[in-house]
Amino acid sequence: MSDSAWARFRRHRWLPQAALVLLLVALTAGFLLVRAEQRDRHNEDALARACGGALPRKDTAQLLADDAWWTLRTGPGPRGLVSCTLGGDGTGDPWVTVTAEPVLDPPLKGVRVEHIVGRTAYEDMPDWAEEHKRADQLVTVPCPNGLPGYARPVTSFRVHASTDSTATEWLGGLVAAVAEHVRAEGRCGGAPVRDTDVRPVSPSPQDPAPDAPPSECAWFRPALLGPALKGAEQSSHGSTHAWARACSTTLSKPGGGVAVSSASWWGEVLPEVRTEYGRELAQAGRGGGPAAGAKTYELAVWAEARCAGGRTLHRLGLEGADRDLLLARADSLLARYLDASGDCGETKVLGKVWG
Q: Which residues make Cβ contacts (< 8 Å) with residue 195, sequence separation at least 6?
């Protein structure tokens, strides 16, 4: 009976071919199912290792291709924090990179006014310190207790992310998750990081209008030097850094001009300022006069104060050919500058010193 059935099956016009097709389909489906299970386990393992396991599964899956084998590139990140890149291994598969880095202020090249307002005020910065400016999403997180392992206090860190996926609305969830992971692991204290804290990276602000003085120079107006410099051409440069703020203004006019500078220092650079300007500080208030017969005079007025709860040093500098003008205006210019310096008290004028 079975031989007869087998014979009929073999003689059938299309049934053997159909059975073969079904067998091939079943084998292919089984192979694809096994491969899919292997891929899912591989992707789950990559996700568990990426950025310390902090990436949320749902948000990451929305950004990446579910049918791709995810490739993980990871490392300790800048200065010991986390960094990971996750994406498909095929051409055109989307990827995502998330990085957490400490907010570190690079050292100034010097503490003199010309260093602070210079175009290259800082020592060379590492490449990773600029990467967040090219990212898609960013959050900066306070760390009141300080991140451990740094020579200087580090009281904040940033997490940024980039992707070539079209589903960028899910990127903020990854940034917030990694930021909260770093905050908790570092025992930073402060408030938990939420998705709503993450913001798109704004483009670099455009340079101010050429005629607009820098904000550090907003306290000064040429009229403060009297009518003699009315109509003078003005050029101003200013800058603010982690431990210093300065402005340098030049007023030019046929027959003479005046250069006015202002600077404030606080925090960890104060010892260096006292060393760099040691001669001026030692002679301030001792009543010395300018060198006789000089064509150009330099006058500096120093003060110390307590601003925003910390000790600060302030310097008002004047340079020009009219000695009497510099001497007559120095005190009032210093007073105006200190008034504009913010929440300052316990002010003590240390005195004037001629250069």
A: 172, 173, 176
